[in-house]
Amino acid sequence: MTAKFSVRALAALAIWAIPEAAASVLPATRPPRVGFTDTVTSHVIPMARHDVPGSHDIHLRRRATNVSTSLTNVHDVYYIIDLLVGKEIIPVSIDTGSSDTWMKPDCGLGEGLKGELSGGIVPNVSFGRQYADGTFVEGYFGFEDVTVGGLTAKRQRLGIVNNTYWQGDGRVSGLLGLAYPYMTSLDGPYETQPLYDPVFTTLWKEKLISPMFSIALSRHVDQSPTQSPVDPSLETSYLALGGLPPVSYDEDSWARTPIQDMSTLKAWGITTKEHGLYILTAEAYVYGNANGTFTVTGEGLSRNVSQFPVTIDAGATLTYMPTILAKKLYASFDPPAELIAYGLYYAKCNAKVPQFGVQFGGKIFWMAPEDLLRQSARDPTKEWCRVGVTDSDSIDPILGVTFLNSVVAVFDVEHHEMRFASRTKY
Ligand SMILES: *[C@@H]1O[C@H](CO)[C@@H](O)[C@H](O)[C@H]1NC(C)=O
Ligand SMILES: *[C@@H]1O[C@H](CO)[C@@H](O)[C@H](O)[C@H]1NC(C)=O
Ligand SMILES: *[C@@H]1O[C@H](CO)[C@@H](O)[C@H](O)[C@H]1NC(C)=O
Ligand SMILES: *[C@@H]1O[C@H](CO)[C@@H](O)[C@H](O)[C@H]1NC(C)=O
Ligand SMILES: *[C@@H]1O[C@H](CO)[C@@H](O)[C@H](O)[C@H]1NC(C)=O
């Protein structure tokens, strides 16, 4: 879908249904485009999107010690990138919800790492990470050169995994964690390990790129030059280091919003003002039945302006919203979406899909109908399709792949700011 909409439509929306607090953040006229100097980078890496039907939710965000999680959701999408580790090409999935880069020698997760690490291993320090669904990896740390997008992080610290509960399916051998260094400290019983620089941090500190990266996650499966045949009419997914990916987007839709520090996630019990994850606060969530059309007129739409932290997580397939909000969205499907099993919301595959948008920096970023009702994720009867937003009272709200498929997302760690633009329809 295209999220392009006119200023007049926005104004109409503002007048029609918005509480004063929210109306004030909507621009009456188009704001001047200042401060967006992002340009397309040559350090752009195509990614393959891989869909795993019916697997468990390998929701990749780092688990907080004392937050219990019991997700049995279906995680079925990840984005694969090739890393050159020493002399070996290792396919890994990307994650903006954690910071370690790790890989596992052999064991059903793709090719795996075979050789020795040129930089040796870190003595007496074990590596262990648990992710929000109970999957875990364990092993040790070592050093090796890691090349990605033509850039080499020399003597990069990596996790080498020798024990895991991980839903490998032969395509990937590990993970590229793209969050801040802080997240690497959350290890051991006291979660106070010394920090180290993740791959992306190493690259910008070595001044190989400016301190930002961006992603364009596409809905189409396996579109990458390393896959053949490539259908040029389908969109490729990209990770772009130091600039923007080469996809089309609506120039007028750029918006910026600050990245919040870790103390914002109250349930984690962390008080530090350090940045760790890409935590944002949306100005509003816009949802409701707009008669199945995707022109914003405001008709049938409601706004929820409560402010809660939401994490941008490319390692999560779905978008997780507070239950109250999610239920209102489910009710806006026609016929309404239903709870099939714990945490699993489905609607009839031919249901009329409502609108759902998230507002940052005065702009609304609409989730595409294909992501709100996922035709490729069906129940065994094939009549019910999975809703791309789930309720999340057990974990903090997340904007996952179902949201990211409609935007270019810029992660600017120099200014602790994220920028978004709406992708043009693809
Ligand atoms: C690692 O642990 C072993 C056994 O406790 C110890 O003998 C050795 O000195 C330690 N090495 C380092 C570098 O700390
Ligand atoms: C994994 O690596 C750790 C750290 O080197 C070691 O203590 C452990 O025995 C290894 N486990 C296996 C199964 O090889
Ligand atoms: C988590 O642990 C911290 C530190 O022990 C504590 O302050 C906080 O209340 C705990 N949070 C929950 C949700 O139990
Ligand atoms: C469009 O939606 C509005 C608000 O839900 C409703 O009042 C109206 O009847 C709908 N129109 C059509 C044609 O469905
Ligand atoms: C908006 O969402 C928040 C968070 O779920 C909820 O607490 C609040 O009740 C909602 N407000 C309305 C008007 O739906």
Automatic annotation (TrEMBL):
This is Aspartic peptidase domain-containing protein. Belongs to the peptidase A1 family. One of its GO terms (cellular component) is fungal-type vacuole. GO terms for molecular function: aspartic-type endopeptidase activity. Residues 79-421 form the Peptidase A1 domain. Pfam families: Asp. SUPFAM superfamilies: Acid proteases (SSF50630). It comes from the Eukaryota. PROSITE patterns: PEPTIDASE_A1 (PS51767). One of its GO terms (biological process) is proteolysis.
